[in-house]
UniProtKB/TrEMBL annotation:
This is TetR family transcriptional regulator. The keyword DNA-binding applies. Residues 4-64 form the HTH tetR-type domain. Residues 27-46 bind DNA.
Length: 187
C-alpha cells in the first residue's frame, strides 16, 4: 500500500469507529485493528489520534470545493461544505466536542480561503484591476471570517437550519461586495 493509501485507510477506519463510540474513547489499537495494520504503522503516518483527525479534516477539505471556485459558482462550493458537514455530522460533532476548537476552524478556514482566493483572483482579472497581494488576501480573509462564523454558528445550533437558506442569504448580502472591495483596493 502506498503511504497515501494507508493514510486514507486509517482515516476511513477512524470515521467508521466514531459512529460507534466517542472520539475520546477511541484508541490507536482500535483504529489499527479496524484497518488491519499494527500500531507502528499508525505511528509511522501520524503522531496520535489528534494528528489523524487534523489530517482527515484537511484531506477532506481539499476535495470539497474543487470546481466551484468561481464568482458564479462559489455558492455551490460553500453549500458543499454544509452538506459534507451534515453528512459527517457524528464525526464533526465528535471532533467539535473532543478536540481543540481550532482544528475545526482551521479546517473551515482552509476550505473557505481556498474558495475565496480563487473568487478574488477571478474578479481582479475580469475587472482588469491592479490590486496588491496583501489587499487581495485581506478581502478574502474578511469574507472567510464571515463564512466560517456562519458555519460554526450552524454547528452550534445543531445543524437544523436549511444550509441552502444560509447560502442564499449570504449571497444576497455579499452580491457585488467583493467586486466593490477590490475596486476600492485597486491602485
Amino acid at each position: 500500500m502506498s503511504s497515501n493509501t494507508t493514510k486514507m485507510a486509517i482515516s476511513y477506519a477512524l470515521k467508521e469507529i466514531v459512529l460507534e463510540k466517542p472520539l475520546n474513547k477511541i484508541t490507536i489499537q482500535d483504529i489499527a485493528s479496524r484497518c488491519g495494520i499494527n500500531r507502528q504503522t499508525f505511528y509511522y503516518h501520524f503522531q496520535d489520534i489528534i494528528d489523524l483527525v487534523r489530517w482527515t479534516l484537511i484531506s477532506d477539505a481539499e476535495k470539497l470545493v474543487k470546481g466551484n471556485k468561481t464568482y458564479s459558482t462559489w455558492q455551490k462550493g460553500y453549500l458543499a461544505v454544509f452538506e459534507t458537514i451534515k453528512k459527517d455530522k457524528v464525526f464533526i460533532l465528535n471532533i467539535y466536542h473532543h478536540v481543540p476548537r481550532e482544528y475545526i476552524t482551521e479546517y473551515l478556514y482552509s476550505i473557505t480561503l481556498d474558495l475565496l482566493n480563487a473568487v478574488v483572483e477571478e474578479k481582479v482579472k475580469e475587472l482588469k484591476l491592479k490590486v496588491r497581494d496583501e489587499d487581495k488576501l485581506f478581502v478574502a480573509n474578511f469574507f472567510k471570517y464571515s463564512f466560517v462564523g456562519l458555519v460554526l454558528d450552524w454547528i452550534d445550533k445543531g445543524m437544523e437550519m436549511d444550509a441552502s437558506l444560509i447560502v442564499n442569504k449570504l449571497d444576497s448580502i455579499i452580491h457585488g461586495t467583493i467586486q466593490k472591495a477590490l475596486i476600492n483596493a485597486a491602485y
